[in-house]
Each structure stands twice: as C-alpha cells, then as structure tokens.
Amino acid sequence: MELVTLLYTGLLKINRESDEKLGNRKKYIGSSDIAGCPRKVVLEKQTDSDPDIATLIRFTRGHLAEQFLLAGLKALPKTSFSWKYQKQVKHKNQPYRAHIDFLFESQGTIGVLEVKSTSGIPREPYESWVIQLHFQMGLVKECNHEKTVKGAIFAMDLNEAKIKIFDGFQYDSIIYERLLLKARHIWECLNDPTMEPVTEKGPLCAWCKYRPECPAYEITDIPELPAEEQLQEFLGLKEHRKSLNVEIEKLTQFFKTGISNTNPTGRKIKVKEAILELGRRFSRKVDPSLKNDYPEIYKKYIKETPYEVLLVHN
Ligand code: SF4
C-alpha cells in the first residue's frame, strides 16, 4: 500500500470519528457554515465527496491545536470557573448549531473561545473567524439572556510555534440578527433546489473547488487557459507573501531597535555567530518640484517606458 494512501486513510478515519460527534452536518447550519460563502456551503452540503488530503491535514491540525489547551485545562487544580470542551449550543427553534471549542462560565459571564490553527498568524483576525465567533456568541446568548457573553480567538501556528490571542469580542445583537438571515438563506437554498445561493467573494476563493462555473467569476468573450490549479496556487502564494512581508518588516524593526539599544555608540551587534549591522544606503530620486519649476527640462528627461503587470480580477 502506498504511504500517501495510508496517510489519507488514517486522516479520513480521524476526521470521520470527530465528525460523528458533530452529527450529520447536512441537517443543520453550523457556525463554520455561517463564516463561509453561501454558495460554497450549499454545494458542499449537497455533495458526498470526501475532502482531499490537504483539507484533511488542515482539519487534523485544528483538532491537534485544541488538544494542547484541553490537556492544560485538565491539569488545572480546582478553578473558580467551569469549562466545557466542544460544547454544543442550538438555536431554540431553527436548525442552527455551534460546537464551541471551549466555553468558560463564571458568575454572570460566559466566555466563548474559538481555536484556530493557521499557517502564519495574521495581524488582525480573519473576517471569517470573527463571523464564526459572533454566531457562536449569539447562540449562547439565546439560552443565557441574563448573562454577559464574551468571546476570543486563540490562533496557533504549529509550524512556527507562535500563538496570538484576539480578545475583547462581545455578543452583538445587530451582527447576530444579520447572521441569522444568512443562516436562513443557506437553509432555504438547501431545501429549495430552485433557489440560487448568493456568492461571497474573498481570499478563500483561491482554494474553492466550486470556482469553475461560479457566477461571481463569470467572464464572457475572453479566451480561456485551463490553468485553474496554477492560478489558485499563485493567489495563495501572493496572500502568503503579504503576511510574510509584514512579519519580515516587524523583525527588521525589532533588530534595528535591538542594535540601537544594545550598542548605542556603534552600529553592530552579535546574535550567536551572526553579526548584524545597521548599514546605510542612499536612494536617488528626482525632486518632484522639478515638474513645476522646470517643466521643459522635466518633459525632456522623463521617459515613459511601458511594462507589463499581471492583474487578477477576482
Ligand atoms: S469561488 Fe468564491 S464566491 Fe464562488 S463559490 Fe467559491 S467561495 Fe463562493
């Protein structure tokens, strides 16, 4: 048996076991469904295909991240708060549910914690994470009117061993009402094949297997290149490059400050064997006032050379 097949079988087994605890996802709208594009959610619920290996690895990575916190909580001595893992909360009369990763309860307050395993921790939480959390807080509030409901997102990058907590979220009735409308739309589309689910374009479209034929991307009269996979990879890498640039810039500032603080009279420091130096470079630019002060000279020496860029309209 091929190793990849073995891995796929193992991942599928682990994910099916955890899915069984969640019940048949086709029979309800979950908080992760609310975070996504309605068209994608409806099509996923209407098909029976198993996820691909990359998706299964991502799911398993998510379960693994939760296990670290779970082990920590179990090791705690007696606490002043109570907690539950994978707590199911349901809407009182609609088929809407959430399986809350961690739910904490102390006098008068309930805290909802959503755990996210991610590759590269974003500066701000992704919109889909926040939407999911708001839906969860809304469902919790429905059954606990008298309590304050708060929320947080715990992001972990297992590869880089980095974590970040995004907190300070609170139940918001206006956001929740809007999300209930979205849940109703998805549910109606699932039960009425004549209804067209709305599309919600976003960065995750790059990985969406329903992108071919997606009305959000209908382009007519333009010749087509069959390179969907390469385009998805390209868009994904561009997103990754953006977050890498942010991280690189943060570390550059960290080391620049480090050099100034550690060696205030010099420009070098050592980190193990490596030497870090504050170098100096000069950039040469034409003063923009040249255009106004000497328009003739400006016109004579400014050359416009066309070059090509790749624009992706999505
Ligand atoms: S490509 Fe984007 S807009 Fe279209 S179904 Fe997929 S997620 Fe939704």
What topology does this entry show?
Layout: H1 3-22, E1 29-30, H2 31-35, H3 38-46, H4 53-74, E2 82-90, E3 96-106, E4 109-117, H5 127-143, E5 148-157, E6 162-170, H6 173-191, H7 228-262, E7 268-271, E8 274-277, H8 290-293, H9 295-301
Parallel strand pairs: 1-3, 4-5
Antiparallel strand pairs: 2-3, 3-4, 5-6, 7-8
Helix pairs in contact: 1-4, 3-6, 5-6
Bound molecules: iron/sulfur cluster.
The site of iron/sulfur cluster has 13 residues, from helix 3.
Q: How would you characterize the overall build of this protein?
A:
With 314 residues, this protein is α/β, with parallel strands linked by helices. It has two domains: 3-217, Lambda Exonuclease, Chain A, CATH 3.90.320.10; 228-284. Helices cover 44% and strands 18% of the residues. It contains nine helices and eight strands. Strands 1, 2, 3, 4, 5 and 6 form a six-stranded mixed sheet that branches. It has a two-stranded antiparallel ribbon with strand order 7-8. The longest helix is centred in the last third of the chain and has 35 residues, at 228-262. The two termini are 41 Å apart. The mean pLDDT is 88. Iron/sulfur cluster binds at residues 37, 39-40, 199-201, 204-205, 208, 210-211, 214, 216.
